[in-house]
Amino acid sequence: MEKLKIYLGDIAYDTVSLSTEAIPLAIGYVAAYCNKIHGSKVEIVLFKYLEELEQAIIDSPPDIIGLSNYAWNQNIGIEMFKLARQKNPDILTVWGGPNFPIDFPSQQKFMMKYHVVDVYVPLEGELGFSNIVATALNAKQKNDIRTQVISQLIDGCVVRDKNNKLQYSGPGLRTNALDDIPSPYLTGIFDKFFDGRLSPLMQTNRGCPFQCTFCTDGIDEKQKVNQFSMERVLDEIEYVGKHLPKKTSMLMLADLNFGMMPRDKKICEALAESQKKYNYPRYIDCSTGKNSKDKIIEALSILNGALQIKLSVQSTDEQVMINMKRDNISTEQMLALTPALRKNHLPSMTEIIVGLPGDTLQSNIKTIRDMMRVDVDQYLIYTLMLLHGSELNTPQERKKWGFKTKFRILPRSFAKLQSGKKVMEIEEVVVGSNTLHFDDYVHIRLLAFSIFVTNQPAFKPIIKFLRQNNVDIFDLFNRPLESEDIPDGIKKLFGQFKEATVGELWDSPEEIIENFQNENEYKKLLNDELGFNVIQFHQAIVTTKYMQDWTEYVISLGKTLLLENNITNESKIKQFHDIANYCRGLTHNVMELDNTLEPPEFSFKYDVEKWSANPDIGSKIIEEFQFDKLKTMKFTYTKEEIELFQSNMNIYGISTNGIAQLLKRLPRYVLWRHPSIV
């Protein structure tokens, strides 16, 4: 039999902008291992972009098609399987990835729903897929491959036999000796993805010691942590830095707890060396460790601010943490980190999830207040998703907590196929439970939006001044939700946000899919009327249309809070005046690409820039940063920043949704103007 033609895909949508921009690491590993084991007997082609895979299936369908299955590409995977089966009735369809239920009844229900799938490979894919290929190679001719594979048990796989019955060979397989898998970077498999659009995704270890029930990596089978060799990791860092196009700036790490391992410091040193040699990576996105924060800070401080430390508490309520099996993660350690974060100039963020088991409005407010004591740079408040592969999405857990769920379109994840059919990805989210009312959910979402837009680097001087004068900064974010005395434009924007938050929720996936088969409804997705990330979308509206209004409102509210706290002496008022003008300068005409326009200028008595950048929040007050005489400063963008804006606009477009993606991917400090003395 001639060599097997295999297509492997980790599909991203590209209708309005890229839905995921990571180089497809998982299928790269699968391909590299399969090539190692089966060599010239197989011909493997990797796909990331939907249009390329769709056209390849139409023009030249393969013998085997294997697709990754995540929450963000499940439905398009099924449509590609259907298309492939239509073009080649004998094709073998293989699915793999974490988006797969963990209990047997739910697995059977899942596979019965997606009957076009012949084989599922749970856990890690390299061994299971290679075993499938080995079985396929025993077929006498290509049109016998599917019959050959589904007629027997295959180690590490769930196989659907000819009678539609699932066959289990045991639990999924994991690879303990990770270096047995050749590197898709070092073997050149990924070179074609160095196209200036995609960002490298790398991995130094696999597994997670924690058991968080909302996460697909919290299951028992994934608790052991295995590592790639240090030599290999360092070689990949060098290879990527050397071969990437210069405009690529982001590196993604798939590690689940980066910084916790003793050797992670050495990896950070290698990344810092790559920054010197190749000016890459300028930004790093990954999940940092949940414990051992002092060790993580030591490692990440080497990276020149390229990587945010994530204080991902999800909740600080003790009972909620027990409910989600997260009580082995020390919240107190996180709360004690502020001095070290500031001393090392480390950007930081915290993640909070709304709708967790046992959550209430009060527990969410408590968590937000607790994390504001830490003074992180960014507070991200997410809605709980019920993911296939997580413990929370088992029938027992759903019933126990009384989850009330709705469905919504994943942002940017939709497309019109050549057949005319519209496909979109849909997530199930918790909007209530036996302890959380729907109105509470909406209220927290409004608060999350207020925090997201106001807690920006451009307003950090105001926030710092309030903190130093013992003003509860929670009021800066919460007051717009309680007060009617807000500008009409901002009041209207909050109303639009609330309407969009409720309006994005549907009762079933089928209802969504049926609605958007209508061409007029589908155009609403194309025109940014529906199907966007509500918080990011409205941040883009603020940034492009309401930035001046928002700035003036934050300044006005800051003054009000000072007065309410009896901060009324003349020197304090003058200090706040300088701070207010500094914020006005930073936020003036955000992302203005015409550098011939006259930049804004203000006169200052205090060096607000130096004071606000000083890490010692407790003792260094702005009075210690007084100029010897008034100094005038203008606020501008550099040529490099304007080029960065332009290159990202070329990728994501200038629609509101495109700007939302740009804002998500640019480091937060890049967005704002910089002061210079005239």
Which value, in Å, is the CA radius of gyration?
A: 26 Å
Q: What oligomerization state is this entry in?
A: single chain
- Biggest pleated-sheet summary: 7 strands, mixed
Q: Can you count the beta strands?
A: 20
Which percent band covers the strand fraction?
Answer: 15-25%
The chain-level structural class is alpha/beta
Residue runs with pLDDT of under 50 for 5 or more positions: none
List keywords for this structure.
678 residues, alpha/beta, seven-stranded mixed beta sheet, three-stranded parallel beta sheet, 17% strand
What does this structure look like?
The protein is an alpha/beta fold. 42% of the residues lie in helices and 17% in strands. The protein is built from 25 helices and 20 strands. The strands form 6 sheets. It has a 7-stranded mixed β-sheet, sandwiched between helices. A 3-stranded parallel β-sheet has the order 8-11-12, with no helix packed on it. Strands 13-14-15 form a 3-stranded parallel β-sheet.
Short overview:
This protein is α/β, with parallel strands linked by helices. The strands form six sheets. It has a seven-stranded mixed sheet, sandwiched between helices. A three-stranded parallel sheet has the order 8-11-12, with no helix packed on it. The chain starts with a strand and ends with a strand.
